[in-house]
Sequence to fold (299 residues):
Amino acid sequence: MSIAAPLAAVLIGAYLVAVLERWSVHGRFSLSAPAISALALLGRESITTRKADALFFEAGPVLLLVAGLLAVAVIPLAPGLIVTDLASGALFLNAALAYVLVALIMAGWGPDGAYGMIGGWRFLGQFLGYAMLIVMPITAVAMRAESLMTTQIVQSQAQLWNIVYQPLGFVLFIIAAVALAFVPPLDLPVAGGDLAGGVEAEYTGARLAILRLARMVIILALAGATATFYLGGWLGPVLPPWAWSALKTLIVAAAMLSAGRFIPRIREARFLELCWKLGIPLSLANIFLVGVLVLVVPL
Fold:
């Protein structure tokens, strides 16, 4: 199929996510504000630090954007409206988003600045915490669907959405998604209060615009994955399938961007401790419970 429609959906979705983020931060809803901010960034000079690692400095933001676009490619908007319906789609999504870590470390290391470097290594600490929390709930979702195809996962929820069938997995996946998208309270890589922007600190102009666009695409991909894995994807009455996918994705994105701002920021060491000591055992318990349900109550 042509990728024009999915690509347009990604661009519109990323823009709406930027609108929602501005609303969650400033409390004002403005459809034009992200466009004005983007034009302002594109009009500014892109400054390079004196001792920058040119390869990492230039490639970091681009790789972050590519990781987000690859993840979006396996998320279905409607039956037949997907870039590529891979047999291992759920696994591919996780593999694509693994490059978020690589991109942020490159973006932190490349400018040769202390704030950016600390931000990149902070994200490594978050990655060690959420890595299993995002894989293991996907395992339970695939168990019920008996497939890793994202379209098949949606169809498996025709009778009962996974948020009801496996609520524990949903909670764990959302926590991992918040950490991967580095939004509050797990925004340590860009913490404005103590790192002055972190991995974004040394970027200006078009490079910063690409970095921020990439972050919006990643939030969109994770919100879309949550809607696909746990909220029935395109399933719903009255509205067309693509509308249900879009609505659920934007609701999840709004929740991810706003809820965490009421929770104190969590240090990466504390987050890692909670994930390993509590998150992984709960993930294993979720897999066990879903396995029992699949055998006893095969909905």
